[in-house]
Specification:
Blueprint lengths: L8 H13 L3 H6 L5 H12 L5 H4 L3 H4 L8 H4 L4 H14 L6 E2 H6 L8 E2 L1 H4 L24 E2 L2 H4 L13 H7 L2 H6 L7 H6 L7 H21 L2 E4 L16 E4 H4 L2 E5 L3 H6 L9 E5 L8 H18 L5 H30 L6 E3 L20 H10 L8 E3 L3 H6 L11 E4 L7 H8 L12 E5 L7 H15 L4 H11 L9 H5 L6 E5 L10 H9 L6 E6 L5 H5 L9 E4 L11 E6 L3 E4 L12 E6 L7 H6 L12 E5 L1 H4 L15 E5 L20 E2 L4 E2 L14 H5 L23 E5 H5 L14 E6 L6 E4 L5 E2 L2 E2 L7 E10 L2 H12 L5 E5 L6 H8 L20 H5 L8 E5 L5 H12 L4 E3 L16 E6 L2 E5 L8
Parallel strand pairs: 1-2, 3-6, 6-7, 7-8, 9-10, 10-11, 11-12, 12-13, 13-15, 14-16, 15-17, 17-18, 18-19, 19-22, 22-23, 23-27, 24-27, 27-28, 28-29, 29-31
Antiparallel strand pairs: 4-5, 20-21, 25-26, 30-32, 31-32
Length: 938
């Protein structure tokens, strides 16, 4: 009994949907042969959109199937071109077209046709009128097709090594001079062909043109095919034959269609056939444009060649002009299609897109991108109707909204997702011009948007102030009458929308500064924080590197220092959970009360990467107040936010804090800045690596006499506030400190961090800053500091191990008995031999199973300690190579314990390795690696 057939259609739909989500197309296809009812449902799921990406996307291993020549089974895997061709072959076989273009017959020779026509002649063909059904199969596959997109599969041609399996007829055809002359390959700049490595072997380029031409003809043939459609419009009639079927050209039933731009002229002539079309995608299938660099180098190369032969040839200019004419004509046809469709079927076409094409991007390092200009895209959108009550504004419909900003109803918009940080563009300029649209999004909850400039959110501030003022006036009759009068005004009066709908319930806001627009102040974030203080849960700002000329000329070290001030005018934000501010272009200066206003923060990330150096006077001026952050789990402070952070805030973070990072910006080689040990010592500025001795310049004046009053007077700790290092953080798993925070760090704090897994301390500077390591750093009254959960220890800089190699082992075994990874760079007082003895877990064995060369080295003491630790990876570095160290390395290299090379980029000779151990040791121009590969020791 067929139980599936007894299920209601909704259940069958759900089952088939899940099968296809699990990529079980074969299982669904097998149901086509069971009975008519199951076949009808299966056909609808498989053939509504038969060329969709999910059905033909190649598995990763298929890309390399033909490179694995030793694996014959791998070579038999079917890639996307095979599956697309198989599907197209089956569908075309049911069309019985009046004629088959010659290039299609090469791929599908089994298609019987009374006449073979050339590709040039086929370009003048039009859609045929419905005729008798050509399919002898009881299943009408064509009748179910509603979406036809052959553009995406063609992009897989390059990655798929199809030429290794190509039919002889295909190879013979693309090697014909006539094809190579007319296919368009000669119109590709020679410099691009050379970069694609196609000068010596142009066959892949010709094959790509071949596939594009096949796509063009197959797409047109399918659109021109005849489908049998029942009265319900879902395909073949049901059982009993009571429903009379109707024959239609496939183009008449399509709801979405991808049209090759090179062939759009044919579709313009037949636009009247696409009466049900709602979505059209124009596919940039030919090379019609080049990057500025390609054009520049091509012109330069041609000029050099002209000088050699003594005459002037304009080959490049002529080619570019020809491409421009082709592109302009194609774009005009594209616009004409949309315009004519709108005239014939007003409001039917909902979207029209022309996305960037990947057809000519064979490899990421040699792209030949084809893009539709913003101007053309905007003209397309102007020909379409306005969006109908959109709930989301993003890259898919952003341009269409901008084409009709005032006609689009925005009351249903819940999310805006359009990051404009890539820089100034025509789209961005239109957004700025129409930025008032935000006030009409009364249901907005999520906002991801580029910076719209000063005052962009003043409307929200004014709405909140007005609402607060009205509430504070209570039942003032005059205000009530005024409010009723305002509500009677037209609904599109933006000034009074808050009276009708209330405040915008914004919950998440992420603003990105544009890459080539420097900002001193970001009032957008401050206005958002104030206006939506009751509803905000996440707030983020990202200011990327600027492209400003002065910034580049000063090597990312602008004078005067730019600052971004955040937090002025904030009120309490009781629901804010995540705060993310990244200022890659300027010093991030926080209002002293910013964190005080956010008592329920869970994740804090405040970052700038221009604070290499600092001066206490400025940090004192900008210091923050202690905040109560009892719910905070993760805090990352880097740059000025770290230097002005009040350590008293840590006292409130005991219950939940798991990750803490407080650092200043490091220079190259992890060099950080620490104030000189004495006032007489010169200040070394990291960026210039020179003695500078002068106070850093800041763009803001007014240090004032109050700085002198706030100067610390002999207080313990690294900063301007008292750092006691006695905080209990029992859930802390990761701690990262550098510069003065690491330099003054007290290990006693670790006694309150039993779950710590990763510890990073960096005091590496160009000056002689050292910290002693002895038992005193681990001594807490009554016990020693032990971190049983610590797995990774990173300590950079002048850590002076007073007890030498012996103490090193004791220090690590006491502090972190379960340590797995050690990064110890530029330490003092220990030898390479000391580190290597710690690293060893087991002695390598000879073929006889006995340790030979190492017998003399492995004393009884070492044998007892060979299972001493769990360290499997060690990364060391020093500033000098000592002769003793080099001899030691050579000895260990002879033992097969390490790999050795002249530098970290050279190939290294592989030697015998210990099981599960990795070791690297870096000196100037010397590099040794311990492979992570394993070798049995038994």
């Amino acid at each position: 009994m067929d139980y599936l057939s007894q299920l209601i259609p909704e259940c069958l739909d759900l089952i088939f949907t899940h099968l296809l989500l699990d990529n079980r197309k074969v299982d669904v296809a097998s149901l086509l042969q069971v009975n008519k009812s199951l076949a009808a449902v299966a056909l609808r799921h498989l053939y509504t959109d038969p060329f969709q990406h999910a059905f033909h996307a190649p598995a990763e291993e298929v890309y390399y199937a033909y490179e694995a020549e030793e694996d014959e089974e791998e070579g038999e895997k079917r890639g996307p071109l095979e599956t697309v061709d198989a599907l197209a072959r089956m569908l075309l076989a049911r069309c019985l077209p009046a004629s088959v273009p010659e290039i299609v017959a090469v791929v599908f020779p089994e298609l019987s046709a009374p006449q073979i026509i050339s590709a040039q002649d086929s370009a003048t063909a039009t859609l045929s009128t419905p005729g008798s059904s050509s399919s002898s199969s009881p299943l009408d596959y064509l009748g179910h097709i509603r979406h036809l997109n052959l553009c995406t599969p063609i992009a897989y041609t390059w990655q798929h090594e199809v030429l290794h399996k190509a039919a002889p007829a295909t190879l013979e055809y693309i090697q014909q001079k006539e094809f190579q002359h007319h296919c368009g390959a000669k119109d590709v700049l020679i410099i691009c062909r050379r970069r694609l490595n196609l000068m010596d072997d142009p066959l892949p380029l010709y094959h790509q043109f071949f596939r594009v031409m096949v796509l063009r003809e197959v797409n047109w043939m399918l659109v021109n095919s005849v489908a049998t459609v029942g009265d319900d419009g879902s395909g073949s009639a049901g059982s009993g034959g009571e429903i009379e079927d109707e024959e239609k050209v496939l183009g008449q039933q399509l709801k979405s269609l991808a049209i090759p731009v090179s062939d759009v002229g044919r579709y313009v002539e037949a636009v009247g056939k696409f009466e049900n079309l709602e979505h059209v995608q124009f596919c940039l299938d030919e090379v019609m444009q080049y990057t500025e660099d390609d054009v520049f180098f091509a012109m330069e190369e041609e000029a050099e060649a002209n000088e050699e032969i003594g005459e002037w040839l304009n080959g490049v200019s002529t080619l570019l002009k020809k491409n421009t004419i082709r592109r302009d004509k194609a774009m005009q046809n594209l616009l004409m299609f949309v315009q004519e469709h709108g005239r014939l079927f007003p409001g039917q076409l909902k979207t029209a897109t022309c996305p960037d094409s990947e057809i000519w991007d064979p490899w990421t390092w040699t792209p030949l991108p084809q893009k539709c200009s913003e101007e053309i895209q905007f003209q397309i959108m102007q020909l379409l109707p306005p969006l109908k009550k959109p709930s989301v504004l993003d890259e898919r419909n952003w341009m269409q909204f901008l084409a009709h900003p005032t006609e689009t109803y925005l009351g249903a918009v819940k999310k805006i997702d359009m990051n404009l940080e890539s820089g100034i563009s025509e789209t961005y300029e239109r957004v700025v011009e129409n930025r008032g649209f935000l006030q009409r999004c009364r249901g907005l909850k999520t906002l991801t948007l580029g910076s719209l400039g000063a005052g962009a959110y003043k409307w929200a501030v004014e709405e909140k102030k007005a609402l607060l003022e009205n509430n504070s006036d209570g039942n003032n009759s005059n205000n009530k009458r005024q409010e009723r009068s305002l509500l009677q005004k037209e609904e599109n009066d933006d000034r009074h929308l808050h009276l009708r709908y209330g405040l915008v319930p914004l919950e998440q806001a992420f603003i990105s500064g544009l890459g080539d627009v420097p900002f001193k102040d970001m009032d957008e974030i401050d206005d958002i924080a104030y206006a939506f203080s009751e509803t905000l849960t996440e707030l983020g700002l990202n200011m990327p590197y600027t492209l400003d000329e002065s910034f580049i000329n000063n090597r990312h070290d602008p004078k005067p220092m730019w600052t971004i001030r955040i937090g002025r005018g904030w009120v309490d934000l009781p629901n804010l959970r995540d705060l993310y501010i990244v200022a890659s272009v300027a010093r991030l200066v926080l209002d002293p009360e910013l964190l005080v206003h956010c008592p329920n923060l869970v994740n804090v990330d405040l970052y700038d990467d221009v604070t290499y150096d600092y001066h206490p006077r400025l940090a004192i001026r900008d210091g923050c107040l202690p905040a109560q952050l009892e719910k905070c789990k993760s805090m990352t402070l880097e740059g000025w936010s770290a230097l002005t952070f009040h350590p008293g805030t840590l006292s409130s973070m005991r219950e939940r804090l798991t990750e803490l990072s407080i650092q200043t910006t490091c220079g190259s080689d992890d060099l950080c800045f620490i104030l000189p040990p004495s006032p007489e010592a010169p200040v070394v500025h990291l960026w210039d690596d020179v003695l500078a001795g002068e106070e850093p310049v800041d763009s803001d004046d007014g240090d004032g006499d109050f700085l002198d009053q706030r100067q610390e007077q002999g207080r313990h700790g690294p900063g301007w506030y008292r750092w006691t290092w006695d905080w209990q953080l029992p859930l802390l798993t990761k701690l990262e400190l550098n510069s003065k925070f690491a330099y003054e760090f007290q290990f006693q704090m670790l006694a309150g961090c039993p779950l710590l897994k990763s510890l990073h301390l960096n005091i590496h500077t160009t000056m002689a800053h050292t910290r002693d390591l002895d038992w005193s750093v681990l001594n807490v009254p009554g016990k020693k500091v032990v971190l049983p959960a610590l797995q990774k220890l990173t300590m950079l800089g002048g850590w002076n191990v007073l007890g030498g190699d012996v103490f090193l082992e004791e220090f690590l075994s006491t502090l972190s008995p379960n340590l797995e990874v050690l990064v110890a760079k530029h330490w003092i007082g220990v030898t390479l031999s000391g580190f290597l003895s710690i690293l060893r877990k087991k002695a390598p064995l000879s073929e006889e199973g006995e340790s030979t060369f190492l017998t003399s080295w492995l004393s009884d003491e070492h044998q007892e300690q060979k299972e001493y630790n769990k360290i499997w990876k060690m990364d060391l570095a020093g500033k000098e190579m000592h002769g003793e160290d080099e001899n030691q390395l050579n000895a260990y290299s002879e033992l097969g314990l390490v790999y050795k090379g002249m530098d970290e980029y050279d190939d290294v000779v592989e030697g015998e390795v210990l099981e599960g151990v990795e070791f690297s040791f870096k000196y100037s121009k010397f590099h040794v690696l311990k492979s992570p590969q394993t070798q049995s020791s038994s």
